[in-house]
Write a structure and sequence with these properties.
Blueprint: E1 7-10, H1 16-26, E2 31-34, H2 38-45, E3 50-51, H3 55-61, E4 64-67, H4 72-80, H5 85-88, E5 94-97, H6 103-114, E6 119-122, E7 125-126, H7 129-134, E8 137-142, H8 145-155, E9 159-166, H9 170-198, H10 203-210, H11 218-228, H12 240-256, H13 262-279, H14 287-293
Parallel strand pairs: 1-2, 1-4, 2-3, 4-5, 5-6, 8-9
Antiparallel strand pairs: 7-8
């Protein structure tokens, strides 16, 4: 792999901004970044980011570029669109996609980027925004062992659990299945809470007891106790519409493998109904509102 003397970051949103902040603070190399919004760029510039007005500006300044974007469509546009990374013909030789993107698209992008002499790596992240701020994300990487070894020190500025999952696309596989299981677990917790409340049991007590037994999980302790029990679903967390996107990616994988994932389909349907009911931007455990409103 070619030498790395500078870094880039594109996409400074809810997760991207704190991830980039950790990269800027902890990496010995200069970091150039850009985003459509000026506010995060101004905040990051104050701690040492070199701001760029365009994607091409980042591509001309950086050897390795990290992406944190809403979906695979934006990833493809940033890589191949007018004024994108490839069109810029800059110095960049490696792109690390930390977004959650379709596996098939990820592998296609890797082939297309390779034709332009650019290595494409998938490194999606798990855990909440606070973990992005603290630099304690779980990062799942797909790529060759050589490239993984080269980018790992930079990923370590953003996460504490960095796993090489296999070849290109493998990180995305692990990420979307992780999210699928979390969404399904939260669906089960929402149903259990609704049943418990209807039977006259306090929700906080129910989940506290469950956390001491075999039903314990991260989902119970975080979205369960911190969101479902107090019945609070803020818009600045992980919205229902994002959850729908991720579980659809998991179901696409299931279909490609001829797996009829009935439980995941049920959770997708519940999330879609939650969005249609007006909770698309709310934290996705808001699905309990529909469960409790549709008593038979």
């Amino acid at each position: 792999m070619k030498a790395i003397g500078s870094l880039g970051f594109i996409g400074l949103g809810v997760m991207g901004e704190p991830m980039c902040a950790n990269l800027v603070r902890k990496s010995p190399l200069p970091v150039t970044g850009t985003d459509l919004k000026r506010e995060p760029m101004e905040r990051l510039t104050a701690i040492g980011l070199k701001p760029a007005d365009t994607i091409a500006g980042v591509a001309r300044a950086a050897d390795v570029i990290f992406l944190s974007l809403p979906s695979g469509a934006q990833v493809e546009e940033v890589c191949f669109g007018l004024g994108g990374i490839v069109a810029a013909k800059g110095r960049v030789h490696t792109v690390v996609d930390m977004s959650t993107s379709p596996v098939k698209l990820t592998r296609e992008l890797a082939e297309r980027m390779a034709a332009h002499g650019i290595t494409f790596v998938d490194a999606p992240v798990a855990r909440m925004r606070q973990a992005a701020k603290d630099g304690t994300l779980s990062i799942m990487v797909g790529g060759t062992p050589e490239v993984f070894g080269a980018v790992r020190p930079f990923l370590a500025t953003m996460g504490t659990d960095i796993t090489h999952c296999g070849g290109i696309g493998s990180g995305q596989v692990v990420k979307v299945l992780n999210n699928m299981v979390v969404f399904m677990t939260v669906n089960a917790l929402a149903e259990a809470l609704a049943i418990g409340r209807a039977a006259g049991v306090d929700g906080a007590l129910l989940f506290d007891v469950m956390s001491k037994g075999s039903a314990d999980s991260f989902a119970l302790r975080t979205p369960g106790l911190k969101s479902l029990v107090p019945d609070t679903f803020p818009e600045q967390t992980f919205p229902t519409d994002y959850a729908i996107k991720d579980i659809k990616l998991a179901l696409e994988l299931a279909s490609e493998g001829s797996i009829d994932a009935q439980a995941a389909k049920h959770t997708r349907e519940m999330l879609e109904a939650t969005s249609k009911a007006g909770y698309g931007r709310a934290y996705y455990p808001a699905m309990i509102r529909l469960i409790e409103a549709t008593k038979v």
